[in-house]
Amino acid sequence: MDYMIVGFQDVLNPTTLFWVTAGVTLGYVLGALPGLGKATGVAVAIPMTFYLDPTAALGMLIGIAKGSGAGSAVSAILLNTPGEPSSAPTALDGYPLARQGKAQKALKMGLYASVIGDLLSTLVLIMLAAPLARYALLIGPVELCAILLFSLTFIGGLSGSSMTKGMIAAAFGVFFATIGMETETFVPRLSFGLLELDDGLSLVPLAIGMLAVAEMIVQAGNIKALDHESAQIVDGAAREDRIITRDEWRRSIPAILRGTVIGSIVGILPGLGASVGSFISYGATRKASKTPEKFGTGMIEGVAAAESADNAVVPSSLIPLFALGIPGSVIAAILIAAFILHGLTPGPLMFVQQPRLVAGVYASMICASFIMLAIGYFGQRLFALVIRLPLRHIIPGVLLLCSIGAYMDTNSVFSIYVMLAFAVIGFFARKLDFSFVTFLIGFVIGPTLELTFRQSLQLLDHRTVNLVHHPIAAAFILLTLLTVVWLGRGNGRRVGMAPAVAAVPGLDTTPGDTTEIKRED
Amino acid sequence: MTKLTRRSALGATLALALGCAGMCAPAAMAQEGYPDKPITMLVGYGAGGQTDLVARAAARAMSAQLGQPINVVNKPGVGGAVAARELGQAAPDGYTILFNSNALINLAPFLMQNAYFSPDEFDYAGMITAFQLALAAPKDAPFDDIAGYVEWAGKNPGSSFAALAPEARLYINEIMKKTGIKVNIVPVQSGSEVINTLLGGQVMLAYSGGIHYRYPDQIKTIAPTTTFRHPSAPEVPTIEEQGFPLGMDTRTTVILPKGTPQAIIDKLSAALEACRTDPDFKKITDSADIPIQYFDAAAARQEMESSTAKNKAIMQAAGVIAK
């Protein structure tokens, strides 16, 4: 604790604060730009930090990672183009809110949820790094496989009108995830001889195509809705459309806390990542809501759930790194290099050898949370102006941004083709009411599920009996079975009655798209 | 119509003449003034990986020598094959270079059925770092070499081996073939997964790209799978010294399009050599336990050809490729 005070003294000086602020600002902007994310930002910034002192350097790099988590919500809400894939669920309710003239409200909630999720997760990191990390090692591939299997049951809650359609979409997501090199024989699957497909489809162009480009096409094809919405945006001047009301806070706080817990856990577990965290959190909040059918039409809790989880992942993914020296995420893996470069070898010994530097890093992380709040708060006023532009002027700009974002992912035109192909798929998914949310979940979870399943087969020596040595995995498998039975019985019918909303965000104001779907039976 | 045609014909002729002047005349001059504009360095991996960081450090050190900026462009895909294909289409003028592991040319073509590159398809400005590839085990494992591991695995059937890359399967398959032990091969996809499975006790042996040297208190090296002993663990005999002639070396290499003028190759080679003494470059490689082993252009070509031939022979003997 004494060290924490020294740590804050090390951080609260103009130079260090300047670099942390620079990092958060850079991250915020990179996060808002589709295709550029934290990994790129941190990687490119590492050489820039050579000449800074360690606290400022590490504070700046972590600041980039944190800032981009919050920044990605901005483009998700305003343009339906998630700045990072992990903000895709934010767009589901954030964008409809923006179209209703409540952009500022959604942006504020996105920011507050981000900051709260980030700050609480940072505190979890500081308090629990050492004790929690011991459990992280208990989660091997077998346990991870069972946990992922369980998380797939959230598809039931996210399918929208028809569970069957939701599952079909999810299956397609898993199918597209199988493209690329097979992990055991290294034979490329479904690559049609294209070298670009050997490593599989990249999530960034795929998500941009399905979410943003498809949405823009739908919007562009609907001039009536355009005019209708432009008229609505004028109404957005009302004060309650710009602020978050007491009632909305009451509904959102549980979602934020749930998101923080889910995000923190996902961050600690190896190999899952922020996208899995935000999707699971969104699904869980929808499931817990009394009005799940309204999700996708502009529910403020949806934004809160997705953003809090998205941002909680970053600090907690440093827990295994700090406590054991094991990277729990891509960003942690990149940060290892930076830490070692600045004389801090991640691992249990660093608390003994460099307590002051560790405290400085912790203090700069806490400062970064507050700086993020300030930058977001003032930055949003600027960003929110975008929404005042008529949509017909926005669409070309967004399409340009989308293309740049897709291109930046791999620096090749092929990514733009991928984006366009999935824009077509996304367009028909919207028109035919297949949930692209479950598609994306299938796509995100599919590869890890396959890998961990193959790993489990080997680790269990090809014998199911050996599962008794993995009680955590066994418990999750049981839980999965129970959930499936429960969904199959009562819940499925309730979902079946709900109107088709989740699959068509942003467009439900037009009558043709929100027709009640007939009950399946 | 005619007027238009004539005008455009004139324009075309003019453009052709200009283009020719632009292409032919400075071709000889370019070597004198090289480099007089920024150089593009392709990197065959995504931003943030270990080799990407080394490439960025090398780009900084080299651009200080050459007096022109070197822009790093990440072209991830199939271990650098996507970037190498693009390099093959670039003009051999020294303004497009590729920083990549040479496994792309001397190893991958024998193990994966995709783009095939042979050493003759490119020129080389040099090599700068070596990968400390090795078989590694948890520190508390009851064995210290391959013989010990074989004995342990014989007594403990059903144990697992973490395989990061296709060559990892080759190593364990060869060991199994020679000794008759049976081990499950667990596929892993990243260096951090290798570490996780070793520290979590899920596997007792793993193939590592060198990242395990960062965990000297938890992980030990059983056998370097290179032909040389590792600077990070000079006391551990290589896999060849332990009776398995399977040493395969890979190194970060500056690869150039075929036909690059010798004067330009020499300039790049000299610039690359400056990395050896560059303090920032050393800082990056030291922090990741990457040994600097510089090869100049001639030595790099020689190493490329001999290592490719050696690896091919190993694959043929193992039955991975047809003779």
Structural class of the helices, strands and pairings of chain A?
mainly alpha
Strand content of chain B: 15-25%
User: Structural class, from secondary structure content of chain B?
Assistant: alpha/beta
The pair of chains with the biggest contact is:
A-B, 48 and 52 residues
* Form type of chain B: globular
Annotated CATH homologous superfamily of the largest domain in chain B: Bordetella uptake gene, domain 1
Numbering strands along the chain, what is their spatial order in the largest sheet of chain B?
2-1-3-10-4-11
Unreliable segments of chain A (pLDDT under 50, ≥5 consecutive)?
Answer: 492-521
Protein name (chain B): Tripartite-type tricarboxylate transporter receptor subunit TctC
Signal peptide (chain B): 1-30
Family (chain B): Belongs to the UPF0065 (bug) family.
Keywords (chain B): Receptor, Signal
Which characteristics define this entry?
heterodimer, A: 521 residues, mainly alpha, disordered C terminus, B: 323 residues, alpha/beta, D-Maltodextrin-Binding Protein, domain 2, 2 domains, six-stranded mixed beta sheet, five-stranded mixed beta sheet, 11 helices, 44% helix, 18% strand, disordered N terminus
Provide structural commentary:
The complex is a heterodimer of chains A (521) and B (323). Chain A is built from 22 helices and two strands. Chain A is mainly α. Chain A has one domain (2-514). A two-stranded antiparallel ribbon of chain A has the order 1-2. Chain A starts with a helix and ends in a 24-residue tail after the last helix. With 323 residues, chain B is α/β, with parallel strands linked by helices. Chain B folds into two domains: 34-130 and 249-318, Bordetella uptake gene, domain 1 (D-Maltodextrin-Binding Protein, domain 2), CATH 3.40.190; 134-224, Periplasmic binding protein-like II (D-Maltodextrin-Binding Protein, domain 2, 3-Layer(aba) Sandwich). In chain B, 44% of the residues lie in helices and 18% in strands. Chain B has helices at 2-33, 50-66, 81-89, 103-106, 108-111, 146-155, 166-179, 191-199, 262-273, 279-287, 297-318, and strands spanning 39-43, 70-74, 96-101, 122-130, 134-138, 160-163, 184-187, 205-208, 219-224, 251-257, 292-295. In chain B, the strands form two sheets. In chain B, strands 2-1-3-10-4-11 form a six-stranded mixed sheet. Chain B has a five-stranded mixed sheet with strand order 7-6-8-5-9, sandwiched between helices. In chain B, helix 2 packs across helix 9 (262-273) and helix 2 (50-66) runs antiparallel to helix 10 (279-287). The longest helix of chain B has 32 residues, at 2-33. Residues 1-28 of chain B have low confidence and may be disordered. Chains A and B meet through helix 3, helix 16 and helix 21 of A and helix 2, helix 3, strand 7, helix 8 and helix 10 of B. Chain B: Keywords: Receptor, Signal. Chain B: Belongs to the UPF0065 (bug) family.
